[in-house]
Amino acid sequence: GAVVSQHPSRVICKSGTSVKIECRSLDFQATTMFWYRQFPKQSLMLMATSNEGSKATYEQGVEKDKFLINHASLTLSTLTVTSAHPEDSSFYICSATNLDSPNEKLFFGSGTQLSVL
Amino acid sequence: GQNIDQPTEMTATEGAIVQINCTYQTSGFNGLFWYQQHAGEAPTFLSYNVLDGLEEKGRFSSFLSRSKGYSYLLLKELQMKDSASYLCAVRDMREAAGNKLTFGGGTRVLVKP
């Protein structure tokens, strides 16, 4: 099956620093990638939709200047949490759509646990 | 927008059956998904329903009634490893990105010996 690689899997940083998370589709081309955020014991909340070669579409309430998304190629999207604060500590998960099977299930990365001290 | 409801927690005994219900409200339904998620891990795909009826996959089955805005996930012959959160997600055909999913709050299932 299709594989989505996400790293780092865990990152601990100091408040005020920026953290970059990468999401790669390893064996398929993904025109669209999605970034989700999940707090403990809660469900996935969509943050933004990342389209290759264009600006990301952010969900209501998500600060685009704080969560920078770049989808530079059909296999790579990055999420940068700028000037991270403790309240940004969360589990971040990316997912991708297979260009060849747009109506099929989403493929998820393994997630990144961000802890901001 | 979409409104997706599922129970917060359920407890069942090893070897038994558990049914997780999901109700949704959406104007442009285009498929319902069930995912399993263990703590600290990414969700894994379980099932997909777009037409009414029952889809069976081994110990897992999923049912959909579009007229009622209702789905359930049935887990049979429960095993300890089935203890996880189960997420119901709905796709809306009106969304610009065809595979954009909205997730319910998830149901934590605890399987006891």
Give the biggest sheet of chain B.
6 strands, mixed
Largest interface: A-B, 26 and 22 residues
Count the helices of chain A. How many? 0
- Terminal-residue CA separation of chain A: 37 Å
How many strands in all of chain B? 11
- Oligomeric state of the chains in view: heterodimer
Unreliable stretches of chain B, pLDDT < 50, 5 or more residues?
none
- Which radius of gyration of chain B do the C-alpha atoms yield? 14 Å
Determine the strand fraction of chain B and express it as a percent band.
over 45%
Number of helices of chain B: 0
Proportion of strand residues of chain A: over 45%
Low-confidence stretches of chain A: none
Strand count, sense and barrel status of the largest sheet of chain A are: 7 strands, mixed
Secondary-structure element pattern of chain A, one letter each: EEEEEEEEEEE
* Global structural class of chain B: mainly beta
* Helical residues, percent of chain A: under 10%
Number of strands of chain A: 11
Notes on the structure:
- The complex is a heterodimer of chains A (117) and B (113).
- Chain A has no helices and eleven strands.
- Chain A is mostly beta strands.
- Chain A has strands at residues 4-7, 10-13, 19-25, 32-38, 45-51, 57-58, 67-73, 76-81, 90-96, 107-108, 112-116.
- The termini of chain A are far apart.
- Helices cover 0% and strands 50% of the residues of chain A.
- In chain A, the strands form two sheets. In chain A, strands 2, 4, 5, 6, 9, 10 and 11 form a seven-stranded mixed beta sheet that branches. Chain A has a four-stranded antiparallel beta sheet with strand order 1-3-8-7, with no helix packed on it.
- In chain A, a hairpin with a 5-residue loop joins strand 5 and strand 6.
- Chain B is mostly beta strands and 113 residues long.
- Chain B is 0% helix and 58% strand.
- In chain B, strands 2, 4, 5, 9, 10 and 11 form a six-stranded mixed beta sheet that branches. In chain B, strands 1-3-8-7-6 form a five-stranded antiparallel beta sheet, with no helix packed on it.
- In chain B, a hairpin with a 6-residue loop joins strand 4 (29-37) and strand 5.
- Chain B is globular and about 45 Å long.
